[in-house]
Specification:
Layout lengths: L4 H10 L26 H8 L18 E7 L1 H6 L1 E12 L15 E2 L8 E4 L6 E4 L8 E2 L11 E12 L7 E5 L15 E7 L5 E4 L2 E9 H6 L1 E7 L2 E7 L8 E4 L15 E8 L6 H13 L11
Parallel strand pairs: 1-9, 11-15
Antiparallel strand pairs: 2-7, 3-6, 4-5, 8-9, 10-11, 12-13, 14-15
Bound molecules: zinc ion (2 copies).
């Protein structure tokens, strides 16, 4: 749940991984020290918003924290889309106290942590600062903690959550699962779960966005005469026509045979990158034929190479 040690410590200390926090109208610097020292009224008005004066209320709702999980899926699952069932260790609003953290029906008494002041002071002299009492949230009063959640307002819970991963998802995509983070407190809504999706590469394909690139070795003869060649695709295989005279480095396109584009009915393309493989010739008959071929097609290959 809370693996981060700072958050863990904050959670244990304050009941909130974000730390003590600043509630509206409270905390931070106090200018109350200036009171009664002859400051003009206008200044007092100006500073009204900063002080700790005014009736204290129970601290307000606090939204639950967002959480993050990493999932790793196979290339074919990224192609087709998939559903993952995650076993999450999350928190839920304490059913006994409805998230208040207070023991229901118990009498409210003065907060022992701050002696009923609702704040604690730090520093001294001119720059004395005030911090809202984390124990009572600035209220100065406090009910005994709920037995069920020990005053945290929420309880740990294991939950199975099924998440749909869209077809065509890319490595590094961050998916938001609304409301599946940590529970909020005092009526605050839950946080969100963020899924960091890792996609295992398919060694046959290089992926660039929705397009896929495939190395396609063809023979010298296929390059010269053209051929029909079977190539793998994400869902199986397909035949590709290699036109006569196809050179090494050429990209032959199979339109719409790449990855699905999430949220669309379209797909990217599959490109076959041509690599011409020259055969290793050992036998005299083949050498003879190639020499003959060389004489028939002599000369002009480098004619424009260095202009
Ligand atoms: Zn207190
Ligand atoms: Zn409770």
């Amino acid at each position: 749940m809370l693996s981060d040690p700072v958050k863990r410590k904050n959670y244990d200390t304050f009941g909130d991984p974000a730390g003590p926090g600043v509630q509206p109208g409270g905390g931070g610097f106090s200018f109350e020290d200036f009171d009664g020292t002859g400051l003009p009224g206008a200044f007092q008005d100006l500073f009204q918003g900063f002080g700790n004066r005014g009736p204290r209320r129970r601290p307000g709702p606090r939204a639950g924290e967002d959480t993050q999980h990493t999932v790793r899926i196979a290339f074919r699952d990224a192609f087709h889309g998939t559903r993952l069932t995650l076993n999450l260790h999350r928190s839920e609003t304490c059913p006994a106290c409805q998230g208040s953290g207070d023991k229901v029906g118990a009498p409210v008494s003065t907060c022992t942590a701050c002696g009923g002041k609702g704040f604690r002071e730090q520093g001294g002299g001119f720059f004395r600062s005030r911090e809202e009492c984390p124990a009572c949230g600035g209220a100065g009063k406090k009910a005994p903690p709920c037995d069920n959640c020990k005053g945290q307002g929420r309880t740990p819970r294991n939950e199975s959550v099924t998440v749909g991963i869209p077809a065509g998802v890319e490595d590094g995509t961050r998916l938001r699962v609304a409301g599946k983070g940590e529970a909020g407190r005092r009526g605050g809504g839950p946080g969100d779960l963020y899924l960091q999706v890792q996609v295992e590469p398919d060694p046959r394909f290089e992926r660039r966005g929705a397009n896929l690139y495939l190395d396609l070795p063809i023979s010298f003869t296929e390059s010269a005469l053209g051929a029909r060649v079977e190539v793998p695709t994400p869902e199986g295989h397909s035949a590709i026509k290699v036109p006569p005279g196809t050179q090494g480095g050429a990209n032959l396109r199979l339109k719409g045979m790449g990855m699905p584009i999430p949220g669309s009915a379209q797909r990217g393309d599959l490109f076959a990158r041509i690599r011409v493989v020259t055969p290793k010739i050992e036998d005299e008959r083949s050498k003879e034929l190639l020499r003959e071929l060389g004489e028939l097609n002599d000369g002009s290959i480098r004619e424009n190479a260095w202009r």
